[in-house]
Amino acid sequence: DADAGSIASAPETCLPVDANVALPEDPAYVIYTSGSTGKPKGVVVPHRAVVNLLTSMAREPGLDADDVLVAVTTLSFDIAVLELYLPLTVGGTVVIASRDEATDGQALKGLLEQHRATVMQATPVTWRLLLEAGWNSNTLFKAFVGGEALPKDLADELLARGVELWNMYGPTETTVWSTCMRVIDTSDGIM
């Protein structure tokens, strides 16, 4: 707030290109995975791919400045990229769960409630921990499920709690998620 005046008076023109600025094909990060081969390999992910992911996910499933995302993923798993950067790119809030909170259903439930979270991305195992703790969303809530297959019974339980449910899949090589689909009804078996 103290700098509001100087920020408001700054020119709205783009900064000049700097030789130290990352270009679209420059590496954003390297992450190691064994993928489906079982053989460890480093995947170099370019800035272009990360920007594309964040832009796409901001549009659909959609996130905005009013959202509060609870991040539960370890930094060594590529889905942490979405948890940490997506809320920040749209002006939202990131609440970082400790490892103890992320692995304890009651603690995670408390964290979601305390911060009035509106979004969480997690594997089915973490969603089950939360449901076993008796969590019910009392806000409009987006549940992103990925990292493993989404079982029908888990989808049904989440939908029964009134969440907006998204099933996501993607190998590391495609920059976190290559597909996402909103699950509205599981009766047709398509998830």
Question: Could you explain the architecture of this structure?
Answer:
The protein has helices spanning 4-8, 47-62, 80-89, 99-102, 105-114, 124-132, 152-160; strands at residues 27-33, 41-46, 68-71, 93-96, 119-122, 142-145, 164-169, 179-183. The termini are far apart. The protein is globular. The strands form 2 sheets. A 6-stranded mixed sheet has the order 4-3-5-6-7-8, with helices on both faces. The protein has a two-stranded antiparallel sheet with strand order 1-2. The protein contains 7 helices and 8 strands; from the N terminus they run H-E-E-H-E-H-E-H-H-E-H-E-H-E-E. Helices cover 33% and strands 21% of the residues. It has 191 residues and is α/β, with parallel strands linked by helices.
